[in-house]
């Protein structure tokens, strides 16, 4: 015998969605890749001797792709803000986490 869920089971909260555009997330990620790249530079010879030079290239690629993502997210955010009738929603300074 199948029973139906209680009536209040399908309630939806009356909250506004967060306006998360990704700019801050991409910026933090790019800075972290850059820090990792700079932290590995003093160990360049060790990385080369142990055949782990790809670590340096990985950090460089992460930083480069992050810059491309940063430009993309900023352009997208600005295009959304330029649309008529699009009112920005006030969000926490911490983005989705806050």
Q: What count of helical segments does DSSP give?
A: 3
Number of strands: 0
Counting copies of identical and different chains, the oligomeric state is: single chain
End-to-end gap: 44 Å
Which residue ranges are poorly predicted, with pLDDT under 50 across at least 5 consecutive positions? Answer: none
Radius of gyration from CA coordinates: 22 Å
**Computed structural class:** mainly alpha
Share of residues in strands? under 5%
- Mean pLDDT across all residues, rounded? 84
* SSE order, one letter for each helix or strand: HHH
* Form type: elongated
- Summarize the main sheet: none
Q: Which key features would you list for this structure?
A:
elongated, about 100 residues, mainly alpha
Secondary-structure map:
Elements: H1 23-40, H2 44-49, H3 54-82
Helix pairs in contact: 1-3
């Amino acid at each position: 015998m199948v029973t139906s869920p209680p009536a209040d089971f399908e309630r939806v909260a009356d909250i506004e969605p967060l306006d998360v555009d990704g700019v801050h997330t991409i910026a933090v990620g790019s800075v972290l890749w850059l820090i990792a790249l700079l932290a590995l530079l003093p160990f360049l010879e060790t990385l080369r001797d142990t055949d782990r030079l790809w670590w340096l290239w990985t950090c460089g690629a992460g930083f480069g792709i992050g810059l491309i993502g940063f430009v993309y997210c900023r352009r997208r955010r600005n295009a959304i803000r330029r649309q008529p009738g699009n009112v920005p929603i006030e969000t926490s300074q911490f983005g989705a986490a806050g």
